[in-house]
Amino acid sequence: MTAEQRPSWEEYFMDIALLVAKRSTCLRRAVGALIIKDKRILATGYNGAPSGIRHCGEVGCLRETMNIKSGQRHELCRGIHAEQNAIIQAAYHGAQIKDASLYCTNLPCSICTKMIINAGIKKIYYQEGYADELSKDMLAEAEIEVIQLENS
Question: Rounded to an integer, what distance in angstroms lies between the CA atom of residue 32 and that of residue 22?
C-alpha cells in the first residue's frame, strides 16, 4: 500500500467511529464515538439502552411515541448517547482522557458537550451536524477545537 492509499489518522479513527455506530440500538440515529489520545484508542461508545435494559427495538421508541423532535428533550429517552458511553467506559476502566480528542459520527448535543468540557477533552472531530445550537455555543466558549470531516 502506498502512502497515498493509506488513510490519514483522522480518516482511520472516523472510519472506526462509523463501525462502532453499527452497534447502536437506537431506532432513530446510529452514532459512534471514540476517545483518542496519542493516536491510541482509549474508549469507544455507541448510542442505545444501558447494559441490561431492553432496547428500543424491543419496547419501542419513547421519543417517537411522544413525537419529540431531534435535538430537544434529551432526557426523554431510554438510550444513552455514544459520547456519554465512551466517557463512562473510560472512567470504568480508569483511562485518563484529559486533553484527549473525541471522534464522533455526529456533533455532540448540549448534554454530551457539558460532559466533554468537564472531562477535559480538547478536540472534537465529527461528520454530521446536530440540531443543538447550545452545544455549538458552549464548545466555542470552552475553546474546544471542532473539526468537521468529509464523509469517506
Answer: 8
